[in-house]
Amino acid sequence: MTVPETGAWSVVGGRSASGARAECSYALGHEEPELARLEHQARLLGPATVAILRLAGIRPGMRVLDIGTGLGDVAFASAELVGSAGAVVGIDQESRVLESAQRRADSRGLNNVTFEQGDARTWQASHRFDAIVGRLVLLYCDVAQCNCMPR
Length: 151
What we know:
Helix content: 25-40%
CATH architecture: 3-Layer(aba) Sandwich
Number of domains: 1
Shape: globular
C-alpha cells in the first residue's frame, strides 16, 4: 500500500457518535519508571516484532511510518530492515519521548530514521510511505473511532 501525498488524509482520525473527538492519549504516562518499563518490554518483544515486520513485507528500500513510536523501538527494527536505501519516520505526541528516541537512534548509528511530534489522528504525511506500522498503539484509542487507512 502506498500512502497518498500530503493533505490527502490523516493517519488516524475520527469522532464518536456524539461528535466528540476520539481520544488517543497514552494512559500510563511518560515518567521515567514507565519509560524504563517500555524499554524492558521492547527487549522482550523485539524478536517477535522483527519477525512480524518481515512477515508483513518490510524490506530494503521501503519508506515506513511508525505511529505511536514512543521510544522508537519499532522504528529501529524497521530501520534495520529497510536499510540505508529506505527510511523510517516515527511520530508520537510526546516531545520528551521523541528526544529520547532520537538520542537512542543516534547511539545506534541509525541515519535512516527520524522522529516528528504529532497526533496520529491528525498528522499529515509530507512523504509517501510504503507501510504503516505500530505496536501496541491502537489499544490506547477507541478503535471504532480510528481510521488507519487512506481515504
